[in-house]
Amino acid sequence: MKKLLTLLFSVFVMFGMYAQNVTIDTSQIVIPIKIGVDGEAAVSDTSSTLIVSEDQQANIAYNEGVEFYSKNQYEAAIQSYTRALQLNPDMVKAYFGRGASYMQLKKYEEAIIDLSKYITTEQDDGNAIYLKGYSEYYLDKYDDARASFNLAIAKGHKDVNIYYFMGVMKFNEEKYQEAIDEFTKAIEVDSKHFFSYNDRASSYRMLEMYDKSIADYDKAIEINSDMAMIYNNLGSVKRLNKDYEGAVVEYNNAIKKDPNYHLAINNKGIALYEAGKYEEAIEAFNQALKVNRDYAYSYNNMGLCYYKLKDYKSAVDAFTKAIDLDPEYAYAYIHRGSANEMLRNMEEACDDWEKAKDLGLGVAEEYCSVCTEYKKQ
Amino acid sequence: MKIKIYHLVISLTIILGFQMQIFAQQPVVINKKEFKQSSNGYKDAMSSIKIADTYYIMNQPGAYRMALKEYLKAYEYNQHNAELNYKIGACYLYSTEKPKAIDFLQNAYKAKPGVALDIHYLLGWALHLNYEFDEAIKYYRMFQVEQGDSESKKSKSKGEVVVYDVDKRIKECETGKNLIANPIRVFIDNLGSSVNSKYPDYGPVITTDQSVVVFTSRREGSTGEQIDPNDLLYYEDLYVAYFDDTKKEWSQAINMRSLNTEGHDASVGLSPDGQILYTYKGVPDGTIFESLLKGDNWSKPKELNSNINTKLQETSASISYDGKYLYFISDRPKDGQGNTSIGGKDIFVCEKQKNGNWGPSKVLGAPINTKYDEEGVFMHPDGVTMYFCSKRDGSMGGYDIFYSENDGAGNWSEPINIGYPVNTPDDDVFFVVAGNARYAYYSSAREGGYGLQDLYRITFLGPEKMMVMGTEDILIASSTATIQQKVEQEVVEVKKVRLTIMKGTVTDALSGLPVEATIEIIDNEKNELITTLTSNSSTGKYLVSLPSGKNYGIAVKSDGYLFYSENINIPEATAYQEVTKDIVLSKVGIGSKIVLKNIFFDYGKETLRETSFPELDRLVTLLESYPNMTIEIGGHTDNHGSLKLNTELSEARAKSVVDYLVSKGINVSRLSYKGYAYSQPIATNDTEEGRQQNRRVEFKVVSIK
After folding, report:
1. Looking at the structure, do residues B508 and B618 belong to the same domain, yes or no?
2. What are the pLDDT digits (tens) for B429-486?
3. Is the Cα dihedral B622, B623, B627, B632 positive or negative?
4. Is the CB of residue A229 less than 8 Å from the CB of residue B477?
5. What percent of chain B has pLDDT over 90?
6. By C-alpha distance, which of B514, B491, B519, B418 is closest to B188?
7. CATH code at A306-377
8. Which of A231, B118, B227, B628: disulfide with B705, CB 3.0–4.6 Å?
9. Confidence of residue A139 (pLDDT cuts 50, 70, 90)
10. To the nearest 5 percent, what fractions of chain A are helix, strand and coil?
């Protein structure tokens, strides 16, 4: 029973992470917790009358915790588990329950403490070790996470997600080849693990191995054709591979799956820009801004289209909007400076380049070298 | 308008810009029978043709203009005659409206494919000039096939030998395609109506700070008011305009009357400080003259010596920033050292001799000179970069502007075409670059000007600035974190000018009036005089070009004044800068002082460094020229450290200077020294800059008998 609980729980963690726009069927995840409510276990432990009553109180508190957990009331669940532990400090499964609740609340530090206590007693619970590892992963304690994951594997818990997260860590550490190796192991455990396909594809992309990347994204889509994200990623790889037409097709697929996916709409604009279709690109960026009016990138990109169309005035306006949304957007300053240069507003151009330099863009210093003569005026 | 013909007087425009002369005059005759459509107007048309034909065979730009006028009259009568269309097209090719040639040549070709032997060539060239490179190549190839010789074809026509270098033309078209596909980023701005006229204005030369432009104009009001029969334009005159720093515009151009003659007077070179002007005169035989600015007046142009001027054509000159070298153009077959020049007009250089005269000429070798013509040489005051024009391979048509850099050991880098749109398929000849290399000046007949050729300023914007798209993807499926595409920042090699322009005025300390002073630029490390300049007597203005990588000592001297000493150390990596330094000279008198800025000691010690010797030697010279002068050398420090130590150090240093002077033969009785420590600061001790100024050696006149 417990096994089922944690397994489904871990799936929840994963789905809970990946995108805001995917609704999670919480009921599905809560149900196993209900199954985990097992008064029997607690009752069966009663051996002395006095203790029995305390144990029963502890059991009641524990079951309350499970009940709250099942209703997604994690704060209340934590209180119940805490009470259970006060009544019976030896009830280690309450540590597990409380740790799980903390994970739900993304309080990973607390979760690690509780899971550690649980593991001290239940040393062979690979699942718990894995969950602790996951919490450590989430806190960017990659070395700890790797140690936990390896221990979980040693305890026989060869969960696909363990290999998957090992891959993700390598990816985040920019060790893309090692990431690919881990994702490959994950796929060996579960050939339908489309996350691993997606992420392996992304690793290939980072290594500029675009053909392999495209093949893996295709595979991920074959397994799960509902995720706008994967289509978007496929589009981006095709774009990087200079297949702008193909990229636009994939971005359109992504947008079809999720019409509000502004990243894909913005990226479609970039593909059009790179294909030299500046007017169409502007249309796409406007669309992205309809979906997310605060998306500074689309204003910046639109500005670059106007720049290419030699409409420097409109370019300046677009860059200004990008900067209004993100006053630290160094590239937008560079670009606005360049458009101002073309409009012969050298003082403004120099102010912008100066600002970009202050924001840490070294190249701006080179641009500023012409500025002394304009400052004098 | 009276027309007076000068013997052998050829304007620079004709010398430089008359590409068509390579063609033969094709004996194309308009057949009367073919031409006649009706008797109405026929007679007038034929008489126009007759007049036009007499001009046409003169093979001169002005004559073509006259011919065109008449042919166009005949064209009113019959628009379909092949020969007439051909001739109108040919005339347009000589004019400033070259693209108009295409339609006429095409009409001629359609009406009669064999209208003239060179119809394909002319069509090719008209299209070439109009940037229609692929079409042009097509016609050039047809011409080649017809001529049956791919290299060149010599054809005799009226005794002239004409060379058709068709392969070269085709190469030019190929180059043109490449250059146009990768245009350079520039603004090209007309200098405005105060400078330009409806007549040809060309050949701008500038001071390196762009405050003065001298140029050549064929405008009305030229000296003598006479017309050159070769091109039916007024004779060349020199004009000058000044940039108004407050209004940000050029002043009205003024005719430089004192320099202009009734013949051709054209500008070819100006020293970076604007004190030496090189001019071209058609007389006696294509000769370069030099004129010096004394106060407000230019000296009478003086013919440069025979190392530079020969009986052949010398057409362009540029003096190096240090005044040591004169680069010029000549079509002489051998240089002054017996080396054969490479072909056509080439770039030569003369070095200034100890006696101040220009020494024997030396032809620049490969990769600068080619068998094709080189023209319009301009040596940038950074001392490294040479700009010049050439018809070499890598030109997109006629003369193109190229640049090359010297490695300091006399080797020139492979010349690089400066690019489109500065260069065009037509001749691009006069080109000068400001000290900061961000601006250049040239003349062009582009649309939107005030007529014919105008002066333009080019602003180089450099390579395209970076453009970074904002993009993100969610690459990790289990994460909402977006991953941004990493930006590869392309490092574009930008040509950096490593030059300091120091300018200002030299004035008298008491009266504030301008002083004509000699400015010596010394390389302190090498103890070598780099150059000597003079401030202008009526304005006191001076300008010196100091390429990076040297510790410069600057000594400003004038009779009756104590010299002024400045030190400016410019490390190798220093980018372009303009420094304004107004210099005040004190008359020699009791109590007058000089801060000796070029005296260097070892850190914390009184040991003189060798770099101090040029300055100390100037002091010796001064003491020698005033034998009765007694002086005090004063040592000064900043306020770091104890008074005792500083007093000791400053006194020891002052004594070192005195010891040096004595070693050079100055009587010790004339010299005293004192350590003032930090009792007489001349700047704040709160900043490093101020402290540096306070650490100094002063020279003070105690008595003069």
Report:
1. no
2. 889 999 988 999 998 877 778 877 899 999 999 888 889 999 999 998 887 666 666 5
3. positive
4. yes
5. 49
6. B418
7. 1.25.40.10
8. B628
9. very high
10. 80, 0, 20
Burial of A154 (0-12, 13-18, 19+ CB in 10 A): exposed
DSSP letters, A146-211, are HHHHHHHHHTT---HHHHHHHHHHHHHTT-HHHHHHHHHHHHHH-TT-HHHHHHHHHHHHHTT-HH
A:10-39 residues touching chain B, CB 8 A cutoff: 14, 17-20
Q: Is the bond into B284 cis (omega within 30 degrees of 0)? A: yes
Q: Which of B144, B100, B151, B97 is nearest to B120 (CA)?
A: B144
Residue A229 has pLDDT above 50, yes or no: yes
Say yes or no to pLDDT of B5 above 50. Answer: no
Q: What is the pLDDT of residue B693?
A: 85
| N residues, chain A | 377
Determine the distance in angstroms separating the CA of B466 from the nearest CA of chain A, rounded to an integer.
8
Q: Is residue B450 part of a domain?
A: no
Amino acid, res. B413: S
Option in A172, A229, A370 nearest B477 (CB): A229
The yes-or-no verdict on residue B51 having pLDDT over 60 is yes
- What is the reported pLDDT for B492? 57
CB contact under 8 Å between B475 and A233, yes or no, is yes
Residue of A nearest to B482 (CA): A263
Range of the domain at B312: 186-432
Q: Where are the domains of chain A?
A: 1-158, 306-377
Q: Give the per-residue pLDDT at A49.
A: 44
Q: What is the ipTM of this complex?
A: 0.81
Residue B376 belongs to a domain: yes
Q: Residue A296 and residue B470: Cβ atoms within 8 Å?
A: yes
Q: Which residues of B touch A165 (CB under 8 A)?
A: 478
Cα dihedral A302, A308, A310, A316, rounded to 10, equals 30
Residue A225 has pLDDT above 80, yes or no: yes
- Determine, yes or no, domain membership for B480: no
> Is A17 in Cβ contact with B478 (below 8 Å)?
yes
Instruction: Render pLDDT for B369-399 as a digit per residue (tens, 0 to 9).
Output: 998 999 999 999 998 999 999 999 999 998 8
Q: Does B513 lie at the interface with A, CB-CB under 8 angstroms?
A: no
- CA B691, CA B287: separation in Å to the nearest integer? 55
> What is the C-alpha to C-alpha distance for residues A254 and B307, in angstroms, rounded to an integer?
77
Q: Is B579 on the interface with A (CB under 8 A)?
A: no
Minimal CA–CA distance to A230: which of A197, A207, A189? A197
CATH architecture of A1-158: Alpha Horseshoe (1.25)
- A97 or B152, higher pLDDT: A97
Q: Looking at CA atoms only, how far is residue B481 from chain A in angstroms?
A: 8
Q: At what angle do helices A160-172 and A142-154 cross, to 10 degrees?
A: 160
Q: Are residues B362 and B403 in the same domain?
A: yes
Do the strands B212-217 and B237-244 form a parallel or antiparallel pair, or are they unpaired? antiparallel
* Residues of chain A neighbouring B472 (CB-CB closer than 8 A): 263, 297
Pick the residue with more confidence: B145 or B217?
Answer: B217
In a domain, B179, yes or no: no
**For residue B577, which residues of chain A lie inside 8 Å, CB to CB?**
372
* CB of B469 less than 8 A from some CB of A: yes
- The residue type found at A270 is I
- Are the beta carbons of A266 and B461 separated by less than 8 Å? no
Total tally of structural domains belonging to chain B: 4
B465/A307 touch (CB, cutoff 8 Å), yes or no: no
Q: What is the pLDDT of residue B233?
A: 86
